[in-house]
Amino acid sequence: MDIFNVFIVPTQTAPSSWSYLVSGLYILAFGLFIYGLMGLTGPKTAVRGNWIAAIGMIIAIIATMLNVPIRNGELGGPAGSDASTPTINWVLIAVGLIVGVALGIPPALKTKMTAMPQLVALFNGVGGGTVALIAWAEFIETDGFHHFRDTPAGPVVAGSLIAAIIGSVSFWGSLVAFAKLQELLNKNLEKSLVKAAKSFQLANIVLMVISLAIAIFLAVDAANGGGASVWWIVGLLIASGVMGLFVVFPIGGADMPVVISLLNALTGLSAAAAGIALNNTAMIVAGMIVGASGSILTNLMAKAMNRSIPAIVFGAFGGGDEGGAGAAGAAGGTVKATSAADAAIQMAYANQVIVVPGYGLAVAQAQHAVKEMASLLESKGVEVKYAIHPVAGRMPGHMNVLLAEADVPYDAMKEMDDINGEFNRTDVAIVIGANDVTNPAARNDPSSPIHGMPILNVDQARSVIVLKRGMSSGYAGIENPLFYLDQTSMLFGDAKKSVDAVIEELKAL
C-alpha cells in the first residue's frame, strides 16, 4: 500500500495528485513541528524553534483547507467528492480565522513577561475548549451518531467522547489556573479551597463515574443506531467541566508549574482524539506531539519536586503567597536586617556571586535591574551566575524567560544540578523572591511537607542576602529556616527598589 494513502480521507478510492500534494504538505508540517520542538530544548534556539513550529502550523492549516471536501470535486477539495458531500461555508471559515488571529496576537504582543504564565494557561484552556466544542458539533452533525448506523463508527464515537471529556477538563481547569495566577481569587477563598481538598476529591470521583457512565451510554447507543438526545452530550460536557474545576480548585501555588504542564498535555491528547473523530491527520500528529512533550515535561517537573503526579493533583498543598501575611519566627533564631550599602559592599568584594531568582523577581519586574547590578559587579571583577530551579516561578522556564528578556547571557543561567556544587565556594548568594526552592527544610526536616524536594543549596554559601517584602511564607505555606541562619541577612522591600538601591551604592564604591 502506498504510504500516502494513510493521509487520504476515506471517501477517496484512489490517491490523486491533489491528495499527494496534501499529504506532502502534512509531512512537511509534521517535520517542522518536530524540528521546532527540538529547538525548545535550549534558550539559544527557543525563539527559532517557535518560529519553525509556527510555520509548520501554517502549512498544516493550508493543507487542511485544501483537503476540505467540496461538492462535485471543485477546486479546493480532494478528488472523489460527490453531490452527497456537504457544502463548506468558506465565509464562516475565513471569519473564524480572522477572529482567532485578532484575539490571539494582541495579548501575545502586549502581555508582559511577568504575566506569561497566565497567558499560557489561558491559551491552553482555549485549545481544550475548542476540542470540547468540536466534539459537541460532531455529535449534532451526526444526529447523535445516528448517521453512522450503516458504517463503522468506532473511531468517530470514541474520539468524540474522549475529546469531550478531556477537552472540558482542560478548558475549565485552565481557567481556574489562570484565575489563580492572575490573583483573581480572594486569598481567603483560595486557602479555603486548598483546605477542602478531600471534599473535592470525593466530588471528582462521583463526577468521573457520571462522565464515564454517560460516555458508555452514548457509545452503546451509537452501536445500536444512535440518535440520542443532544442533552446527553451536554451533560457529559458539564460533568467533565465541573470535574476540571474541582481538580484545580484545591491545588496551591507551589504545584502550579506542574499543573500548567499537565493541563497542556491533556489539551494535546484531547486534540489528538478529536483528530481521530474528524479523520484529520494534522490534529492527530500535532495533538500527540503536544500530549507527549507535555507528559514528559510534567514528569520532569514532578521529579524536580520529588513528588508523584497523583500526589501533586490530589495532595493539594501550597496556598500561601509571597506577599501575604505569614507568621514570622516559627523556625526559631534571629532575623538580621541589612541595608543596600552593606549588600553592595559584600558583593563588590566577592569573587563569585550567585543570583537566585524567584517569583518575587517577576512580580517586581526586577530582571533589568538585576542585569544592571550584575554588569556593575562584573566590571569590578566579580563573577556572576544565576541559579535556576526547575519549578521557580509559575511555569516551566519562567525565570529563564524573564532573564533572557533582560539580555542575561544564556551561559550564565545554570540549572540546579549544574550550580548546586558551587554554592559552598560562593562568597555571596543573593536570593530574589525565591522561597520554597531554597528551603533547607526540604533536605533536613522529615516532617516538612516539601521534604525530599531537591532545592538550591543556598544555605551552603558563605553569605546569603535575601530580598523579600516581608517575613511571609512561600507558596507551600511553610516557613524557611534559611532566613534565620547566621550567614543570612534580609534586605526588606520591593525587589526592584532594593536592587536599584544596591546599584546606586555600587556606583558610589
UniProtKB/TrEMBL annotation:
Coiled-coil segments: none
Pfam families cross-referenced by the UniProt entry: PNTB (PF02233)
Location within or outside the cell: Cell inner membrane
Top-rank taxon, per record: Bacteria
Gene3D superfamilies given in the database record: TPP-binding domain (3.40.50.1220)
Domain NADP transhydrogenase beta-like: 25-504
Reaction equations catalysed: NAD(+) + NADPH + H(+)(in) = NADH + NADP(+) + H(+)(out)
TM region(s), chain numbering: 20-38, 50-68, 88-107, 119-137, 157-181, 202-223, 229-251, 258-278, 284-302
Catalytic activity, EC: 7.1.1.1
Membrane topology per record: Multi-pass membrane protein
InterPro entries: DHS-like_NAD/FAD-binding_dom, NADH_DH_b, PNTB-like
Keyword annotations: Cell inner membrane, Cell membrane, Membrane, NAD, NADP, Translocase, Transmembrane, Transmembrane helix
GO cellular component annotations of the record: plasma membrane
GO molecular function terms attached to this record: NADP binding; proton-translocating NAD(P)+ transhydrogenase activity
Major localization listed first in the record, in broad terms: membrane
Role, per record: The transhydrogenation between NADH and NADP is coupled to respiration and ATP hydrolysis and functions as a proton pump across the membrane.
PANTHER family, sorted: NAD(P) TRANSHYDROGENASE SUBUNIT BETA (PTHR44758)
Membership in a protein family: Belongs to the PNT beta subunit family.
Name of the protein this chain belongs to: NAD(P) transhydrogenase subunit beta
Organism: Gordonia desulfuricans
